[in-house]
Design goal:
D-Maltodextrin-Binding Protein, domain 2; rod-shaped; 2 domains; 11 strands
Length: 296
């Protein structure tokens, strides 16, 4: 029994005619007749009552029709589902972000727009520490990462699209004497006597070196303390142990007890959607194409 025999059987059963079934299937009547005979021989039962004037299902044929019609429909749906998965129109993509940031301005609208366009592709969002996110991208547990392109540009097999420009600034307690400065009026040299909260390389690789470079380029060596995680950094900020240099998407910028003041001399950071070029998830091409349309 094969799919051609089944399609011929269903057509004859529905039309009660070999000639009409043949026209429906774009086959000759003898071909349809031979397929039905072969099917009956395979099954060992007679499926149709044949006469010069009519064709009707036997009792065995009626039972077979009820079951095989559903099986045939399920089979066609299965084929369509597999074709959709192969072309990326059905599936799942996993997007990772670094913990300690908010994404309402860039990533969230991007994901919502993609899900609206491709409702059969599920987007799974995950947040983790920088080192774990990088490992997930390398292991292809993460299909995409939204992060600063600077942190990934030197990683082998990493490719990306810039989707945002992130403003850099100082995060100060809201009652800090400099917190009332308007954006652009504060200089990093105004902060030379402050203590800066940063992270060791095993938590956020390169964070402290970048902060040190910014300060040294502006004529002073920073006094830095190293937080083991974001929660500790928040505690130290609340206890006024120090200040931080962050971009506009850092989660602390949403806290009312802190003020974010832009530092134009630091420029901006590129926010990017990043992927591993060796990842063979079929949905990646659709997401990449969608992202590339909004690349700034």
């Amino acid at each position: 029994m094969d799919s051609i025999q089944i399609s011929c059987f269903i057509a004859v059963a529905q039309t009660c005619s070999f000639s009409r079934a043949a026209k429906l299937l774009y086959k000759s009547q003898p071909v349809v007749s031979r397929q039905i005979i072969a099917l009956e021989n395979d099954l060992g039962v007679k499926l149709f009552n044949r006469s010069a004037r009519s064709v009707s299902l036997t009792d065995a044929g009626q039972i077979f029709y009820k079951r095989i019609e559903k099986i045939s429909s399920d089979y066609e749906n299965l084929l369509e589902t597999m074709r959709s998965a192969q072309t990326g129109y059905l599936g799942e993509i996993r997007v990772y972000v670094h913990s300690g940031h908010v994404y309402a301005s860039t990533l969230v609208p991007l994901v919502k727009g993609f899900e609206k366009k491709y409702p059969n592709i599920r987007v799974v969002l995950n947040s983790s520490h920088t080192r774990d996110v990088k490992r997930a991208l390398d292991d292809m547990q993460a299909d995409f990462v939204y992060a600063r392109w600077h942190d990934y540009s030197q990683i082998k097999d990493a490719e990306g699209c810039i989707v945002s420009r992130l403003v850099l600034g100082a995060l100060l307690p809201s009652n800090h004497p400099l917190a009332s400065k308007t954006d652009g009026a504060l200089s990093i040299s105004d902060l030379k006597d402050e203590t800066f909260i940063t992270y060791p390389d095993n938590v956020v690789p390169g964070h402290s070196r970048r902060l040190e470079r910014w300060c040294m380029d502006n004529g002073f060596e920073p006094n830095m303390i190293y937080a083991p995680d974001t929660n500790t950094a928040l505690l130290w900020m609340e206890a006024k142990r120090g200040i931080a240099l962050v971009n506009q998407e850092h989660i602390f910028t949403r806290y009312s007890e802190f003020s974010f003041v832009e530092l134009p001399e630091l420029g901006t950071e590129d926010g990017a959607i990043i992927w591993n070029k060796n990842n063979d998830n079929h949905s990646l091409d659709l997401f990449k194409a969608y992202v590339e349309k909004i690349t700034i």
